[in-house]
């Protein structure tokens, strides 16, 4: 796993990207934390998702999700000011043949040197990629020649 490309799509190896945060190292920015949480969703690291969630909004538990495959993360904007941060992102996923994009404007809080996810405004859009459309996974290939291969 460590030498493989990080699920967050940064282009770096997992060991040089989100891996150290999953092992307990503090993420230096809200964007880095957001990336590591996306990777944790992709890898089903529910303990990490809970640990990086601010105590004021953290759910009591999270069920592992084997149905959802997270295929692409796009960070649209991110900022940090003092102990507060914001990240606007789009995350593309599929469940079998169903595709969707989750878009969220997230808020983050820093406490004692660590960033935590606080909450976000989320919207969900179904995707219906056509055979000749660009693949929603971001590969640059046509859907029919990429994830749309039957
Ligand atoms: Zn990463
Ligand atoms: Zn694809």
| Ligand types | zinc ion
Q: Output the radius of gyration.
A: 16 Å
Question: Structural class per helix/strand content?
Answer: alpha+beta
Q: Mind describing the biggest β-sheet?
A: 4 strands, antiparallel
Order of helices and strands: HHHEEEE
Stretches where pLDDT is under 50 for at least 5 consecutive residues are: none
Query: Residue share in helices?
Result: 10-25%
Cross-sheet strand order for the largest sheet: 1-2-3-4
Beta content comes to 35-45%
What's the mean pLDDT score? Answer: 96
Characterize the overall form.
globular
- Distance between the first and last residues' Cα: 27 Å
**Count the helices. How many?**
3
List how many beta strands DSSP finds: 4
Domain YchJ-like middle NTF2-like: 29-120
Family: Belongs to the UPF0225 family.
Protein name: UPF0225 protein ACFQH5_04405
